[in-house]
Design a protein that fits this description.
The chain contains three helices and five strands, in the order H-H-H-E-E-E-E-E. The protein has 105 residues and is of the alpha+beta class. It has two domains: 1-31; 40-104, SH3 type barrels, CATH 2.30.30. The protein has a five-stranded antiparallel β-sheet, covered by helices on one side. A hairpin with a 4-residue loop joins strand 2 (69-81) and strand 3.
Length: 105
Amino acid sequence: MKVNDRGTIKWTALMLPEHVEMLNKMWEEQEYKYMPELDEQQIAENSFLLQEALANDLEIKIKYYKDHDHKIIVGYLLHVDILNKKLYLKDIEIKIENIIEVTIL
């Protein structure tokens, strides 16, 4: 819901632009998603699937957390940076700790 939604639009003319901006930010923050806590079994399974995909050049689907949202990317692993705990897929850098789920297609 935004400040410009029906029912509140008539009041925005009486509000300072800073207040409208704060209200929009508040509504946006209420829609934030959070990183789920993964158990050790899910982390191990994700790790196994990533290793298998890298070793056998398999297409994978990764669900990950970024910018207060859950995102999905499909593709082939290009590179895994173990030192910095990141992996690269289609010019996208994903922190390993932000991976929610891995599926081999």
